[in-house]
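User: Hi! I'm working on a homework problem where we have to compare a predicted structure to a textbook description. Could you give me the structure for the chain below?
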Amino acid sequence: IEGSPLLLAALLSKDEYRPGELSGFYCTLSLGMAIEHVWLMTTELGMGIQFVSTPM
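Assistant: Happy to help. Predicted structure tokens:
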């Protein structure tokens, strides 16, 4: 990670995520789809990507 030319963080605010409500489901789903889109585009461009999941 130290030598990476770009470090991109995708975060979900606790204000948006409400467990047990559909808003929590849609927020989580939207974040996952955004990450997947970046992942697919970097692959299409012939670039590498490393996914790291950690609590912030």
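For your comparison, note the following. DSSP finds one helix and no strands in the chain. The helical segments are 22-44. Good luck with the assignment!
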